[in-house]
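Help! Submission page says 'invalid entity' but I think these are all valid:
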Amino acid sequence: MADGFTSREERAAFIAGLPKAELHLHIEGSLEPELMFELARRNGVAIPFANVGEVRAAYAFSNLQDFLDIYYQGMGVLQTEQDFYDLTAAYCTRANADTVRHVEIFFDPQGHTARGVAFETVITGITRALDDAKARYGMTSKLILCFLRHLSEAEAEATLDEALPFLDRIAGVGLDSSELGHPPAGFERVFARARDLGLKLVAHAGEEGPPEYVREALDLLKVDRIDHGNRSLEDPALVARLAASGMTLTVCPLSNLKLCVVDDMADHPLKIMLDAGLKATVNSDDPSYFGGYVNANYQAVADALDLSRDDLVTLARNSFTGSFLSDAEKARHLAAIAARA
Ligand code: ADE
Ligand code: ZN
């Protein structure tokens, strides 16, 4: 058993009670099959599944694109402001149960506007639920608008235009969807404009794509955080650069397993990342599709890699220091971690 624990159960209890931030969560990826059915019924949308069991059985993926095909189909049931509220409220309740004190949520507006759902409908429903989570649980949040990289930069620009009236509720922009064949370089201008608007910048890079995509995200997009970043480990100079600059990586263990980024959780590179001085964090990505919320991700990777108490404290600390909270807010959360450690 790793340092600091006498049993697996003791480590599980420590993980459960550890205050943490979640920095890589696609709100549409938290759509549980039960809510998918309820919304399909409420909105009269046909879905190609007879029951919840069939939905779960369809969640077997051999790569990112396999997942994305079913993820975009699933979000088709989201139509009204109340739907986006219900989706986000359900996630916040679940995250609160996992001692998540702060969340930075991705949303994919192009997945909705392309179906005729107004940008305003999406953001109003999400933010109303985030406001309620603050009031109910004291959970703070930031919203990150992701551009779909399989679409054009012009379409990303148009989405940023649509976001302009809501910039007071948007902390940053990100880049997600099909990585291979869609390098960050294609989004340099829209990221520069977002930066000029005062927005934070993140990008999925090195999930399936090569280390070069991580370098482009750093050099061309000038991101504040890298989402995933796993394949950075293939390039020692890049690892040294990421470590020296204190760049946060939002790592998603169960996602990596489900999307075959790793073949076995025992092969997950999280411990190698920590030992290399990389500022890794643990996140759930699309918890409904990948089999677990944030604590399940900590648990799975801690068991597989036999993580110590120090490793877990480092991961929780990284989740706050890598967040877009103010220094005073970060200090408050770090003190709460220290009180438990
Ligand atoms: N959209 C939702 N989840 C994603 C992931 N893991 N990678 C890229 N795009 C996504
Ligand atoms: Zn993601």
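Support: the input was valid. A stray whitespace character was the problem, and the output above is from the cleaned input. Residues 119-137 form the longest helix (19 residues).
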